[in-house]
Amino acid sequence: MRIGIAGITGRVGQLLIEEVRAAGATVAGGTTRAPEQATGLAAEVPLFTSMSALAEKCDVVIDFTHADTVVSSARALVGTGVAWVLGTTGLSAAQLGALQEASGDMTVVHAANFSPGVTLVQRLARMMGQALPAETYDAEIVEMHHRQKVDAPSGTALAIGQAVALGRGVALEDVRESGRDGLTGPRQTGAIGFAALRGGQIVGEHDVLFTSADEQITLSHRSFNRRIYATGAVRAALWTKGREAGLYNMEDVLGLPPL
Hints:
The chain has helices at 11-22, 51-55, 70-77, 93-102, 116-131, 155-168, 172-175, 227-239, 250-254; strands spanning 2-6, 26-31, 47-48, 60-63, 83-86, 107-110, 138-145, 176-178, 192-198, 204-211, 216-223, 246-248. By secondary structure, it is of the alpha/beta class.
């Protein structure tokens, strides 16, 4: 299988090269804004400055770039027969629409986090959101990442929050609370709260807490190495072979039955 890597010169891009090769697949090449500045493993493979050029050389593209590129990438990939494994978070309604439209013509796997463990935490969070009444169980999501991270809450934290909201049958934007400071008043019943911590070089930590007057249940996940995201993305890329067009997620890749 020929796998292309969008943003191949980034930190995850280098790990993806290693994981593609470890899986016995071929690194068909990657995109980068400045091919002449490529170093390390990225300098050893074909480099392109456009998604359409990369699509001509591969069967599937793994994309961990930026939300701003989603619409243009969707346009470049539609009609090429190439599958798309997308790990970009923070998509707007228009960008999600472009993704959905593209999936009518091609196989797309989209996930906020390709870790199998995080995927299972999201699933459990949805089940707990459904089983534990919002009137009596407060849901809070706490995440911590390295000091260089520029967005908060993390895309994974928001995806977990979306799972809780889905289980409760509500829209996350209607019940989300984050960044509490000062005299905020009492916690709103049914709110899904977020707290973001930053420091050091922590890869990623996420805790989901459901707390009532009588008990607390906590789901925790710790990432020790970014490689887990690359390994999961390559697993998803291999899974796309022979799949019908559609929009899939990591639960599909793991073979989990629908809830």
